[in-house]
Design a protein that fits this description.
binds 5-O-phosphono-beta-D-ribofuranosylamine; globular; seven-stranded mixed sheet; two-stranded antiparallel sheet; alpha/beta; 9 strands; Rossmann fold
C-alpha cells in the first residue's frame, strides 16, 4: 500500500450519497485514499453540504457562467487541478467532461453509472432498464473516455428488478449496491493501482517497463 493516501477529487451534481460513502470510508487511514476536494456544476446541492460537514474544500463551476462548453470544461479542469488529484471520481456528476479535462486527467477519471454497461447508457439508466423489462440491472464503475458511459469497465454490481418496482425504488436498490461497489473499487485503485489493457481493467501495479 502507498505510504501516503491517494488524493481524490470528487465531482457531484446532487444528493451526494456516493460521495458520503467515500467520505465515510476514507475516515479510516487503512482505506488508502482521502477526499481532498469536492466540486459541483451547480450551487446549493446536498453533495456540497456533505463536503462542508466533513471539512472538505468545495468549488462550483457552472456551465452558464462560461462563454461555451469548452470554456467551462477548461475552467473545471483548472479547478480540479488546483487540488492535485491522483484520481478524479465522478459520483453522480450529471455533465460530460470534455477534451481539455480528459487531456489533463485522462486515465485517472472514473465515473459511476446506474446500469450494467454496455446496456442503458445516458442519463436515465434505471428508468431505461425498467422500461426495457430486464430482470437484472446494477451499476458500473468505468474509466471515463470521450463517449457517453463507454469507458473501460473497472467494476460492476448487479441487483434484481422486482415486479413492484417503479424507477425510484429500482434506483434506490441500485444506489445501495453502487455505493458499496464504488467504495470497494476506489479503495482498491488507491491501494493496488489499476492496469488497463485494451478494454480490460484489473487492479494491480503496472508491469515494469523492460
Ligand atoms: C447515482 O446512481 C449515479 O450513478 C447517478 O446518479 C446517482 C447519484 O446519486 N448518475 P448520489 O448523488 O451519489 O446520491
Amino acid at each position: 500500500m502507498p505510504a501516503t493516501p491517494a488524493r481524490l477529487v470528487v465531482l457531484v451534481s446532487g444528493s451526494g450519497t456516493n460521495l458520503q460513502a467515500l467520505l465515510d470510508a476514507a475516515a479510516d487511514p487503512a482505506y488508502g485514499a482521502r477526499v481532498v476536494a469536492v466540486g459541483a456544476d451547480r450551487d446549493g446541492v446536498e453533495g456540497l453540504r456533505r463536503a462542508d460537514r466533513a471539512g472538505v474544500p468545495t468549488f462550483v463551476e457552472r456551465l452558464g457562467d462560461h462563454a461555451d462548453r469548452p470554456a467551462w470544461d477548461a475552467a473545471l479542469a483548472h479547478a480540479v487541478a488546483a487540488h492535485r488529484p491522483d484520481w478524479v471520481v465522478l459520483a453522480g456528476f450529471m455533465k460530460l467532461v470534455g477534451h481539455e479535462f480528459l487531456d489533463r486527467f485522462g486515465g485517472r477519471v472514473v465515473n459511476t453509472h446506474p446500469a450494467l454497461s454496455p446496456s442503458f447508457p445516458g442519463m436515465h439508466g434505471a428508468a431505461d432498464a425498467l422500461a426495457y423489462g430486464v430482470k437484472l440491472t446494477g451499476a458500473t464503475l468505468f474509466v471515463v473516455d470521450a463517449g457517453v458511459d463507454t469507458g473501460v469497465i473497472v467494476a460492476q454490481t448487479a441487483v434484481p428488478v422486482l415486479e413492484t418496482d417503479d424507477t425510484d425504488a429500482l434506483h434506490e436498490r441500485i444506489k445501495t449496491a453502487e455505493r458499496a461497489m464504488l467504495v470497494d473499487a476506489v479503495g482498491r485503485i488507491a491501494r493496488e493501482g489499476l492496469v488497463v489493457e485494451g478494454r480490460r481493467a484489473r487492479f494491480g501495479p503496472a508491469a515494469p517497463v523492460h
